[in-house]
Amino acid sequence: MKERKEINVQIGDRIKASREKRGYTQEKFSEMVGVSLQYISDLERGVVGTSIPTLIRICTVLHVSSDYILFGEAGNAGISGDPDLLCHISPEQASILSRGISLLLEAMADAP
Q1: Rounded Cα distance, 7 and 41, in Å
Q2: What is the spatial distance between Cα 84 and Cα 4, in angstroms, rounded to a whole number?
Q3: Which residues are CB-neighbours of 68 under 8 A, at least 6 positions away?
Q4: Do the beta carbons of residue 9 and residue 69 sit within 8 Å?
Q5: Measuring CA to CA, which residue among 40, 75, 41 is closest to residue 55?
Q6: What mean pLDDT is reported for the chain?
Q7: Nearest-CA neighbor of 10 among 69, 84, 83?
Q8: Is residue 22 exposed (0-12), middle (13-18) or buried (19+ Cβ within 10 Å)?
């Protein structure tokens, strides 16, 4: 059996937690990322590391930042609250929110 590196175990734990939060099985997730089921299993257990291209696909599929996967940080640039909050809104709600933010930014730019 391969020796597990602590960094791989930590990354694997964060990938697994993010996958489970999204409700994906390992099989579904492996299909979405374009890797084998065995690779996802090994990755989540910290038996293997990942390449940059695969990490990018993982982050894209899970809608998480690479900062979170690699370092355990949300990478939300100072925005407090639940970083997954916006992942659960409809496209219509996202459009309304975007317009609202634009109006707020315009108002703040005009403020003394």
Answers
A1: 16
A2: 30
A3: 14, 18, 74, 75, 83
A4: no
A5: 40
A6: 85
A7: 69
A8: middle
